[in-house]
Amino acid sequence: MLPHPSDGFQVPNSLKRRLGDVGQLIFYGPPGTGKTFTATELARQWVYSRTDTPTDTQVQTVTFHPSVSYEDFVEGLTATKSSGEDAVTYKYEAGTFKEIYEEARDAYERTDGDEPPRYVLIIDEINRGNVPQILGELISLLESDKRLDEPQQTSVQAAHSGEKLTLPPNLYIIGTMNTADQSIALIDAAIRRRFSFHPFPPDTQVIIEKSSLLNPDKDDIDTLAEESSITPKSLLARSIKAIETLNERIVDGDPGRGQRLGHTYLMGVKDTTDICDTWQFDILPLLEEYYFGNVDRLRADLLTNDDDDEPVADVLFDTNTGEVRPEIQPSEIYSALGEIVGIQSSDDSSDVINED
What is the model's pTM? Predict the structure, then answer.
């Protein structure tokens, strides 16, 4: 049985409306903005809205990468050799798409088109594959009026088996695209026209509303960020301010809008250790990657104090190797984040860790 959607998570009605109208969506944005999570939640809500007990095959996920081919996704030929025989025989083998396509088509035909169960294929990291090559002739079918029983119903022949394929209207596709890897402007025009594109920008307000450490009705992020003692609340507040500041600088600098820092990195953190680990092992290595290890340029672009134009937060990176330092103390992270957002930490209190 398909897992139920998460309690309390509301997918925007605009996404549901566009999925129903177009049939294919792409969520695009920087890493850590909730694209895959939202795609999964939308798929489950979409399926459950029509079926009380859907099977786990009604939502399937595939990840594209440079090695994925048409044969993997649609259909290929598999060679087999019987025991004791020299002859090799070939048979057609359905790929991920064709498997869910066949199940959706059969379900549609069983119901004679009357409220058929819905099927959703999620393609994670869709831009990492050669999409026109992987989809092949299927591209021409990805229009709502060319599906089964629609006015412009269209069929194509599968490349290997020659089977005629016509997409049923109860099969939907949701792709996710990481703009840190590729700009949306580089997407093939034929794909761009057939998918509805939806941006997923960083949204630190989500952290404030969802974090177990903060009370959005009582806690003031600016006030917490200026506290001299380190608590989970003050460190998270200062982290939120730092993410916002860094994203502004990333947009203005070389990395660009597509490589901003997502808010989900700080979702679910429970204490100072979690937050510090997130900076040391997730966020800082990502910044290092964006700048190809050129720590001097990284510091100049992102970690410079606007007041005196001197590099700050050198404590985060090894100046010789350009890599994130292997051991960074919470007090050092807290002080560095303060410098990024223009808050000076007092030397006598910034090393006090308070987990209360």
Answer: 0.91
